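Example with several molecule types.
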Amino acid sequence: MLFAPIFCSMVKVENVSKDYARGNVQALRDVTFDVEEGEFVTIVGQSGAGKSTLVRLLIAEERPDKGHIIVNNWDVGLIKPRHIPIFRRQIGVVFQDFKLLEKKTTYENVAFAMEVCGRPRREIKEQVPKILDIVNLSKRADQFPHQLSGGEKQRVAIARALIHKPKLLVADEPTGNLDSLNAWEIVQLLLKINELGTTVLMVSHNREIVNAVKRRVVTLDEGELVRNQNMGKYIL
Amino acid sequence: MRFTFYVLSMANLLRVSKFGVKNFWRNIWLSVATVIIMVVTLFIISTIVMLNLLANAAVNEVENKVDLTVYFRSDASEEKVLDVRTQVLNLNTVETTNYISKEDALDQFKEEHKDDPVILQSLEVLEENPLEPALVIKATETGNYAEIAAFLEGEKFNEVISKVNFEDNRQLIEKLINIADNVKKGGIIIGAIFVIIAILVVFNTIRLAIYTHKEEIGIMKLVGATDWFIRGPFLFEGVMYGIIGAIATLLLLYPILQAGAPRVSTFFENQGLNIAEYYLQNIWWIAAGLIALGVILGIISSAIAVGRYLRK
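Resulting structure tokens for the full complex:
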């Protein structure tokens, strides 16, 4: 994960449009922006602005109707179904609702991501404790999600997202279900991960957090990109 | 490198199997119900196969009992009778002949009616032996009897032969072959119905398992699990239903065959057929067949269930 940022795009969104309901709902309209390697970019917008649609396109859950999305040199619109698992291992994703398995411990939740990708047990035993250390959850390794706070659950989700050492981490409203203190802790963790070299793309509608982060802000409004500012602020 | 790949593949296979077994135990009552349906299907198919075997054996048994009997005139000389026998033996459709002289016929008759004093007294009264010499002919195949009968009913034998007796047996054989055919056709239809039922039940069980694991599957897709890693546990679960169903069927069949064996043996008195012994002697083939069929049914159902889900 440690590397110096160089001037090449991790994410290229070129004239992307996405419709639903046979074209009756335009979720994204001709959106274009880049995210350089090693950047921390926040995507903001009101509900229905197209943020979640953008995330789904970035992780190849859906394909754009028009335009191209290039993520880590993969054109999302052209990925073959059998290559999607390989693509997904290069991106870490974190969601608002954590998406943890309630019947598995912290350790098992993170290890699960390696197990289902066929990693050997020895490698899992080596890597999982290291990642738990990075997210400061080593002492919670044997606890179940219901025993963790919201912030701790999100850290487990982040640890799982990082286990494949992805170049890009996409966080979709990671602080949406958290109180301010936990929310800020999570953002601090994301910033720390970014400092270590991982490109971070965070979707948020938390004004205070966005303004405090002081990084590039891409603003969406009704599916259109209306603002793209370095050291941006939450303006809607 | 190859060894590492092999070890990793074995590790993955074990993981997939472990997940599959977990799915099976998690919904144990549903799994039991599914296994029962599988057992019923395999049992029905085994019964149909056995009935077909028995029907064919019955046809063979009756065919073995069938023969053509030629009754000669009482006044026909033994020389002429033996000449007929020689001509019959020369036919390539005849397997064996058995000549029963008038005296032998009378002895046989007395033996058969030894407990009937009225008949024996009647014989004492008669001055001459009323019975006719006979030639019992066995053909190489059942279909040849008509040809042999036609040969014997020819004009050249009219002076010597009084009666050729085989018509009744042919009708019986044809009836039996008809029944065996109907058993086979009926068996195929019933077997097919139960196979479809089994596939649908396993399909539904796997679909329910997939639904129960919806969240887990979603996360697996998110973190980059391949389709085969997602499919694998459910396919393995399908295989488990097939194997457990087959083993349960094997265990169920033996006591039932033991119970039915005496009745079947009575019918097949000459062949000494014991279906329970036959089952034990061929247990490995029967087990292999049942397990193969169970596994195929399980894999087909779960593959369809998983395939439809993953296409979404």
